[in-house]
Amino acid sequence: MRNYLLLSVILCSIFSCNQNQKDNKETQNLAADSSLTKVNKTNEVEDKKELPNRAFLKTADIKFKVKDVISSTYNIENICNRQGGFVTYSNLASTNNKKELVPVSVDSSIEINNYTVSNSITIRVPNNKLDTVLKDIAANVDYLDCRIIKADDVSLQLLDNRLTQNRIKQNENRLIKAIDNNNKKLIEITAAADLLLSKKQQSDNGKIENLSLTDQVNYSTVNLSIYQNDVTKRTMFASEKAIKRYEPGFKSKMAESILFG
Questions:
Q1: I want to staple 72 with a disulfide (CB 3.0 to 4.6 A). Which of 6, 85, 140, 167 is the partner?
Q2: What is the pTM of this model?
Q3: What is the pLDDT of residues 33-80, one digit of tens each?
Q4: pLDDT per residue over 96-105, tens digit each?
């Protein structure tokens, strides 16, 4: 009987130890998971802090028919100016399709001229006014061929340029200190100065690229291609009488032949 009791006590002890070890492992795993979660959350917060604000480079390409190209051109220019934008390109032109001259009387003719009027316009408008400008321009549309609007997120590109500029600037400062404290040969100093000049040029190029991107973000570009129905114009004018070249008569020619052989 004692042996049975002793065996039971031993088994209970072993089971209790195993259970404690299992609980300890689960506690450790939970603690590790909790720490990993905290680290991940911290990294996410830091990543969000580093992410720049969204910067969209917007462009629009629109082709449509209007009732009158010249009138619509003036209207589009007024819309653009009213919203704080400006026109960067305008090519208003007429293309002759067919030209014909038809006589209608002895001294009159009609010139029939068939041509197409079109205009290619590029405007730039403030980013926050793009939707308003497009809606106002839509009032001129008689038939829409196509309308393409693109928005490219360049925020990471802007951030990359700024970080590159900072790295180059730090490198510049180190080079300046090295040149100031350098007592070596003139050739080595000249090489370092040339390297510094190259770094400055890289920094300037990055700055200019960022300014260009910022300008394109602030002002959206809209390319418009407008046209109208073919126009046929008829113009009547007096026909010019043909002027015949003077020639002497038969008798005059005969007399001249007798006299001069």
A1: 140
A2: 0.60
A3: 555 555 455 544 444 555 567 778 889 999 999 999 999 999 999 999
A4: 888 877 777 7
- 134 contacts 83 by C-beta, under 8 angstroms: no
Residue with tokens 């321009």: 137
Q: How far apart are CA 16 and CA 171, in angstroms?
A: 64
CA geometry: angle 243, 249, 251, nearest 5 deg: 175
N- to C-terminal Cα distance for the chain?
174
Q: Are 65 and 98 in contact (CB under 8 A)?
A: no
Tokens encoding 100 = 């014909």
pLDDT tens-digit readout, 4-24: 554 454 555 555 555 555 555
Got the DSSP string for 91-133? EEEEEEEEEEEEE-SSSEEEEEEEEEEEEEEEEEEEGGGHHHH
Q: What are residue 233's DSSP bridge partners?
A: 113
Burial (CB < 10 A; 0-12, 13-18, 19+), residue 26, is exposed
The residue count for the chain: 261
Which of 171, 174, 152, 175 lies closest to 163 in space, CA to CA?
Answer: 171
State how far the Cα of 75 lies from the Cα of 60, in Å rounded to an integer: 18
> What is the pLDDT of the chain when averaged over all its residues?
75
Model pLDDT for residues 139-187, shown as the tens digit of each residue: 999 999 999 999 888 777 767 777 777 776 766 666 666 666 665 554 5
